[in-house]
Amino acid sequence: MDRLIQGFDQFRREMTAEQREDFLRLATGQTPHTMFITCADSRIMPELIFNTRPGDLFVYRNVGNIVPPYAQHVSGVVAAIEYAVTALKVQHIVICGHSDCGAMKALQNPAALKGKPSVEQWLKHADVARYVVAENRPTILGEEGLRYLTEENVVGQLEHLRTLPAVAAAMANGSVRIHGWIYDIAKTEITAFDPLEGRFRPLATDPADVRDATPHARFSTPLAVASAA
Ligand SMILES: [Zn+2]
After folding, report:
1. Ligand 1 centroid vs 84 CA: distance in angstroms?
2. Mind listing the domains of the chain with CATH numbers?
3. Could you report the per-residue pLDDT of 19-70, keeping only the tens digit for each?
4. Distance 61 CA to ligand 1 centre (A)
5. Angle, vertex CA 67, rays to CA 64 and CA 68, nearest 5
6. Any idea which UniProt keywords this protein has (predicted)?
């Protein structure tokens, strides 16, 4: 705790004039351009890796970067997305998974969830990824299996995202675009889901949007091609 308190003290002392201006400007409102949904993992620091300033990103984090589909039971992330789209008018929503994700590892090894009933229940929202990979890549385990699972989880959560009425309405009139990314911690690299090719490709300056795409064809390509990403 001392490290946090000292860190805050140091931050205030070393704050730049630009930062001071940002905070004054933002004191009475925010207009972030992007909602960024990622894992709660402590190694992911969106504001650091995207070089953003206060007020740029509306960040929401949870275990496994999950967006439950629209249902009667409302989760925090679904409420935050609705607020971001209808009140803040964000133009983009990014769902970002990452390498070495503990949640994805737990999907691979359900025994790890013993004694964690809430996590186990929460990860049911990622069942779509587990099933898709088990049915289509049953022989691929370990690192590569984890990569497939992580990618398919992002694709599955994008599908869930589209079930939220506020998102569907904003996508229909083109005011919101949604994106699926994977952040590789060791390589500091990001790959983005390309719905037209059904695979993840290095992040481009103008990533494809998934408004009209059907991501489910991604396992129709031969394994060698799919692995080349
Ligand atoms: Zn994670």
Report:
1. 22
2. 38-227 (3.40.1050.10)
3. 999 999 999 999 999 999 999 999 999 999 999 999 999 999 999 999 999 9
4. 10
5. 115
6. Lyase, Metal-binding, Zinc
